[in-house]
Amino acid sequence: EILEKYHDLFTLQWEGIIGNMCVPSQAEWEQLLTNCSAFLFYGMERFMSHVLLNWLVAMNIPKCRLVILLDLVRSQQSYQRITNSDIHKSCLHIALERPTETAMLLSLTGAGSVIATQWYTTLQENAERLEVLFENLLRFGKTTGQTVHILR
After folding, report:
1. What are phi and psi of 65, to 5 degrees?
2. Which of 112, 9, 104 is nearest to 48 (CA)?
3. Is this structure's pTM higher than 0.70?
4. What processes in GO biological process is this protein linked to (predicted)?
């Protein structure tokens, strides 16, 4: 609904993967991140649990001026998936998937700005955040700093 509401404010080059019908491959993540000026992740659990750490740190994404991570939503199914995945990771690797570390890694790969949630939340709360972000960034043309200030 939010994407439909702001559809006219998007550029013709808006592309991505929507829905839960398919899981993006690492190549699709790479293509989306390297070819975008802004990247939005709206999903379950930690963003970094969906991409390979070694792959991300080797990327170069200077065209990506803004990364918005509306993640850290947990369901019974996502919790089971992440638990099964984390068993095979070191404590250091899991630590690098936390919000602050993820923002630092994205910045080091070239992202201009990162807006991210810091603690677990609900889908509804992230939908409200997305509405505020789109309203201020797209409709009113506010800067990312002004928009984040409004979100606080």
Report:
1. -80, -20
2. 104
3. yes
4. axoneme assembly; cilium movement involved in cell motility
More confident residue, 138 or 80: 80
How far is Cα 69 from Cα 24, in angstroms, rounded to an integer? 16
Q: What is the dihedral of CA 5, 45, 96, 56, to 10 degrees?
A: -50
Inter-residue contact 148 to 116 (CB < 8 Å): no
Q: Integer distance in angstroms from the first to the last C-alpha of the chain?
A: 24
122 vs 60: CA distance, rounded Å: 31
Q: Give pLDDT tens digits for 129-147.
A: 999 999 999 889 999 999 9
What SS3 class is residue 144? helix
Integer Cα distance of 150 and 128 in angstroms: 12
Between CA 152 and CA 76 the distance in angstroms is 28
Q: Which residues contact 41 (CB under 8 A, 6 or more apart)?
A: 47, 50, 67, 68, 69, 70, 71
